[in-house]
Amino acid sequence: GIVVLGLNRSHAKNALSKNLVKMMSKAVDALKSDKKVRTVVFRSEVPGIFCAGADLKERAKMHSSEVSSFVSRARATINELANLPVPTIAAIDGTALGGGLELALACDIRVAASSAKMGLVETKLAIIPGAGGTQRLPRTIGVSLAKELIFSARIVDGEEAKSIGLISHVVEQNEAGDAAYRRALALAREFLPQGPVAMRVAKLAINQGMEVDLVTGLAIEEACYAQTIPTKDRIEGLLAFKEKRPPRYKGE
């Protein structure tokens, strides 16, 4: 079904500390092999905040060698998230800056409240995005605009984020402060009826295909399609269509 991973480090605005990154890595690792998981929604349980980025108070106490090691671990964890075989949705109901936005960029789909604030602001601190931001942002909104946002450390709201393609959906915030989360859950429910094997290989085909030329991408699609042909789910889909009933997929 739908798995919800909630960030809850309220005293530090969900800033990415060593311990939080370690916990995230364990959670993502557990999801990799769980065949019951169909979609993962990432949200914050702290009102007004998605993730404020790196824990700068902790960072200030680190030796330079520790900083490099920590950023590598954070990058690896966010890469693990990006490589989850099932659809992932980031529900951004509050501020997502630096590593917080990089976390959201690693998800397949982003939904945000119109009042949410997003930006890769690392250049203000004389560093650069180090957990995938310089790579995923231009792949999401285009090279020129990504450079502009990173060079200026500009922060955009949900409406502007939608207009530039940074997020897929923008919603008005509600009194509970969880409008993006509710929209993300609605999206996740749209994914549930589909064939689990098909969802996994569709994601694989898209992710791998976007990094190569069209001819190679079509070969990847062919190889991924071939994985669905011998499945029981494919036969069930045809049978359900013939019998005019909802299919009962088992991921086999």
Automatic annotation (TrEMBL):
Stored SUPFAM superfamilies: ClpP/crotonase
This protein's GO CC annotations: mitochondrion
Main localisation: mitochondrion
GO molecular function: enoyl-CoA hydratase activity; RNA binding
Keyword list, A-Z: Acetylation, Lyase, Mitochondrion, Transit peptide
Protein name as annotated: AUHM protein
Protein species of origin: Polioptila caerulea
Pfam families referenced in this protein's UniProt entry, alphabetically: ECH_1 (PF00378)
Family from the record: Belongs to the enoyl-CoA hydratase/isomerase family.
PROSITE patterns reported in the protein's UniProt record: ENOYL_COA_HYDRATASE (PS00166)
Listed GO biological process terms: fatty acid beta-oxidation
Span of the signal peptide: none
Location within or outside the cell: Mitochondrion
